[in-house]
């Protein structure tokens, strides 16, 4: 793994050449993106047929971020029905800081615990909901590790997972250990060095909003399976 210095220098280089708030997917305008940077449909709303749990990338705002979280939520609601899907971002102890990327699990135990608690809340509050999940950058490591740590009964309730700019892509061989490989789809853009176990952020690491529709289709197919 590259040292933290490489991560920080890479992040600074990216910020110098790219907007700090990347352009959203076509189906979301900037106002909609700001409105959906936080999503608490699970904690504040009623149970839905499907619950999407999402962990944002490092330094992203809200609990959904801006790069792929909001467009994924919107695309999945469009695909399955707005009244059928609850979107919940991982917040609390998951602060999406940079330093945590350099730890052995590419995030810290508190962040994993935060995501694990959301999965547990979804299963407890809504035992009949079909859970799907997504994570971007450090958030992909958060979801990866949390899925491994939840109980087997909760893991069985998780129907599909999408991981964008997967920081553990090399270590975990493009999948989540002890979780069905066919139920995971990894998105690694050509030129995104984060997927190559370097943690060097390039402009390609900011392009995953364009994959929202495809990822929503994948998750919908797992819900309907």
UniProtKB/TrEMBL annotation:
What are the UniProt keywords, alphabetically?
A: Disulfide bond, Hydrolase, Secreted, Serine esterase, Signal
Residues of the active site are 137, 192, 205
Primary enzyme class:
hydrolase
Q: Which reaction does it catalyse?
A: cutin + H2O = cutin monomers
**Endpoints of the signal sequence:** 1-18
Q: Which GO terms describe its molecular function?
A: cutinase activity
Instruction: Write down the superkingdom of origin.
Output: Eukaryota
Q: What is its EC number?
A: 3.1.1.74
According to the UniProt record, one GO cellular component term is:
extracellular region
Name of the featured protein: Cutinase
State the organism of origin: Aspergillus saccharolyticus JOP 1030-1
């Amino acid at each position: 793994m590259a040292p933290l210095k490489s991560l920080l220098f890479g992040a600074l280089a990216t910020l110098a050449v790219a907007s700090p708030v990347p352009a959203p997917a076509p189906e979301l305008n900037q106002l909609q993106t700001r409105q959906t940077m936080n999503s608490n449909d699970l904690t504040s709303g009623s149970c839905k047929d499907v619950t999407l749990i999402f962990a944002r990338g490092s330094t992203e705002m809200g609990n959904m971020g801006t790069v792929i979280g909001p467009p994924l939520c919107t695309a999945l609601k469009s695909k399955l029905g707005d009244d059928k899907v609850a979107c919940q971002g991982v917040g609390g102890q998951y602060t999406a800081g940079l330093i945590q990327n350099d730890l052995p699990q590419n995030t810290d135990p508190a962040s994993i615990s935060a995501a694990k608690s959301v999965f547990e809340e979804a299963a407890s509050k809504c035992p009949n909901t079909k859970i799907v999940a997504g994570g971007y950058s450090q958030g992909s490591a958060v979801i990866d590790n949390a899925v491994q740590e939840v109980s087997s009964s909760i893991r069985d309730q998780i129907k599909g997972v999408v991981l964008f700019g997967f920081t553990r892509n090399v270590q975990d061989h493009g999948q989540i250990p002890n979780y069905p490989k066919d139920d995971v789809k990894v998105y690694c853009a050509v030129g995104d060095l984060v997927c190559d176990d370097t943690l060097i952020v390039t402009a390609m690491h900011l392009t995953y909003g364009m994959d929202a529709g495809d990822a929503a289709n994948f998750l919908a197919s797992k819900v309907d399976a």
